[in-house]
């Protein structure tokens, strides 16, 4: 912050110098005119004045470059720091934030809103300082030439300022609305591009085109509203400056004729008044920037002020390894008023392999997400190695867990880079992890092998290949706890058998929790938990559950009698 303050201070100094050079030019024009009128009594010859004006113009040019460079570069640094803080904040926010926030909205804040803030802290501050300095200096010099003429010349300006202030209040609302509409437009565009194959499959091109047109039209109307407001400001400013110029021509001309001021004074006065025209015009632009910047800052502050419910405790300890059990004591979780998990209690021994199944919406995925603290625990407690996970540092907890989410996400990089993503030490054998995930045969078919680029979100791979690559990523980190959320849903039965066999060898003494609708995935599990409406309704070994003739046995009959493995 100190460096930024010095940049702004240096920029302000050079702005003072710039305006000093600019304000001296009309004064030397005045002396040149007086020298032409009365060469015998003039202190400066017109030629000398011309030389001085040339040097003043050069000084004005040089100092203007430095003032703009310092202030605009400071704005760039501010933009950089805000962008860094935004990204850092996004990485720390909970999953609940992203489930309620559109991706396009976040992207809009990173691009358009940050640009508005940069314009405010750069051009806005520079123009405001320049306008302030120039108004104070020019009006002082005008007053020195003729006070009454100065009052008459600048009299229309306060009326203009009042009108602009009134309009700017409405402009803020318009600007905020325009930013919101741009966020909707960005979100719709991002969603449409991501799902373009689905849109074409169902011949929904015209529907999405109509949706996009509606949102784009709403965005256009918001911007046209702002343009109309700006269009009202410009004529008001032109009227004020034009009125001032007419006053100078009429009254100033009479004062010259009467001998109250010299012709040189009249030239200098006209020059100073002309110098106020651009700052006056800039005043409306500055107000527009300030309203846009304020609207953008309010949107950015929503992210910067967002709090994560999952954070490290002040006295959080590091989990070096997992040797003991995982205990769930009356764990409950809700999304708002919707109860997802209710009073879940069980103990998972170290090295035990536990399957979790149940109807859609029974809370299986949520249960898995609670263990690495991807979601906050509303009620109850989860204990690992005798420690409440809320007292374990997030980094050490998650480093001991290998998590395969239900929806495999791949980066637009090579297969090797995607697999090695979770191995922070880069010490694991990528090829071995790929083999354990049953993905070697597929990799060998690619011309570039492990260096094959998978495309955005893994577009070059099938659903099953994405899942296996995601499994390989989790295996490479050699976790103590392995969480598999329906990892084989897109894999055919024959390939599933091979993967399960390799995973069985990998499990070893690791604690494994696997969620699946396909009961064949539980063949190596010691125990299975059956969830329904957020509660454990059955638990036991697969053999015990089959003997109970309950929900698990019913699911088993449906799948295996119908041939669905």
TrEMBL record:
Subcellular location(s) per record: Cell membrane
Keywords: ATP-binding, Membrane, Nucleotide-binding, Transmembrane, Transmembrane helix
InterPro entries (UniProt xref): AAA+_ATPase, ABC1_TM_dom, ABC1_TM_sf, ABC_transporter-like_ATP-bd, ABC_transporter-like_CS, P-loop_NTPase, Type_1_exporter
GO molecular function, one term: ATP binding
Domain annotation ABC transmembrane type-1: ranges: 9-292
Membrane topology term: Multi-pass membrane protein
Main location (coarse class): membrane
This protein's record includes keyword Electron transport: no
Stretches that traverse the bilayer: 12-29, 44-66, 119-139, 145-164, 232-257, 269-289
Residue stretches making up the ABC transporter domain: 326-558
Protein name (database record): ABC transporter ATP-binding protein/permease
Taxonomy of the source species: Bacteria, Pseudomonadati, Thermodesulfobacteriota, Desulfuromonadia, Geobacterales
């Amino acid at each position: 912050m100190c460096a930024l303050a010095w940049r702004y201070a240096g920029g302000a100094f050079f702005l003072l110098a710039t305006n000093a050079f600019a304000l001296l030019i009309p004064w030397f024009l005045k002396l040149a005119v007086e020298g032409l009128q009365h060469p015998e009594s003039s202190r400066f010859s017109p030629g000398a004045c011309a030389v001085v004006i040339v040097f003043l113009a050069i000084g004005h040019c040089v100092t203007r470059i430095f003032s703009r460079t310092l202030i605009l570069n400071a704005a760039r640094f501010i933009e950089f720091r805000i962008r860094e803080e935004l990204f850092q904040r996004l990485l720390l926010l909970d999953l609940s934030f992203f489930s309620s926030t559109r991706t396009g909205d976040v992207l809009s804040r990173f691009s358009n809103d940050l640009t508005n803030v940069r314009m405010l802290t750069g051009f806005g501050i520079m123009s405001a300082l320049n306008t302030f300095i120039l108004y104070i200096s020019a009006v002082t010099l005008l007053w020195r030439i003729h006070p009454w003429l100065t009052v008459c010349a600048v009299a229309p300006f306060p009326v203009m300022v009042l009108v602009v202030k009134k309009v700017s209040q409405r402009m803020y609302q318009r600007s905020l609305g325009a930013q919101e509409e741009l966020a909707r437009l960005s979100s719709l565009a991002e969603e449409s591009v991501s799902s373009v194959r689905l849109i074409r499959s169902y011949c929904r091109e015209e529907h999405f085109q109509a949706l996009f047109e509606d949102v784009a039209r709403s965005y256009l109307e918001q911007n046209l509203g702002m343009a109309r407001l700006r269009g009202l400001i410009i004529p008001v400013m032109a009227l004020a400056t034009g009125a001032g110029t007419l006053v100078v021509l009429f009254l100033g001309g009479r004062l010259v004729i009467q001998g109250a001021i010299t012709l040189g004074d009249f030239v200098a006065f006209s020059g100073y008044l002309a110098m106020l025209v651009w700052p006056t015009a800039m005043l409306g632009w500055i107000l527009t920037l300030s309203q846009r910047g304020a609207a953008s800052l309010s949107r950015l502050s929503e992210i910067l002020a967002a709090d994560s419910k999952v954070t490290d405790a002040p006295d959080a300890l590091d989990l070096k390894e997992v040797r003991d059990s995982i205990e769930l004591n009356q764990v409950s979780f809700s999304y708002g008023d919707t109860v997802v998990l209710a009073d879940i209690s069980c103990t998972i021994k170290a090295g035990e392999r536990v399957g979790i199944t149940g109807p859609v919406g029974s809370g299986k995925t949520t249960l898995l997400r609670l263990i690495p603290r991807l979601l906050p625990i509303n009620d109850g407690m989860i204990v690992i190695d005798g420690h409440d996970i809320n007292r374990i540092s997030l980094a050490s907890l998650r480093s001991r867990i290998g998590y395969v989410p239900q929806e495999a996400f791949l980066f637009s990089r090579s297969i090797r880079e995607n697999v090695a993503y979770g191995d922070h030490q880069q010490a694991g054998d990528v090829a071995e992890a790929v083999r354990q995930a049953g993905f070697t045969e597929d990799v060998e078919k690619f011309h570039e092998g492990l260096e094959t680029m998978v495309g955005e979100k893994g577009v070059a791979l099938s659903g099953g290949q994405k899942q296996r690559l995601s499994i390989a990523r989790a295996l490479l980190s050699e976790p103590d706890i392995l969480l598999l959320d329906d990892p084989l849903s897109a894999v055919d039965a024959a390939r599933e058998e091979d993967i399960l066999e390799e995973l069985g060898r990998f499990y070893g003494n690791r604690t494994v929790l696997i969620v699946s609708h396909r009961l064949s995935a539980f063949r190596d599990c010691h125990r299975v938990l059956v969830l329904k409406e957020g509660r454990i309704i059955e638990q036991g070994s697969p053999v015990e559950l089959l003997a109970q003739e309950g929900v698990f046995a019913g699911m088993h009959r449906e799948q295996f009698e119908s041939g669905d493995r």
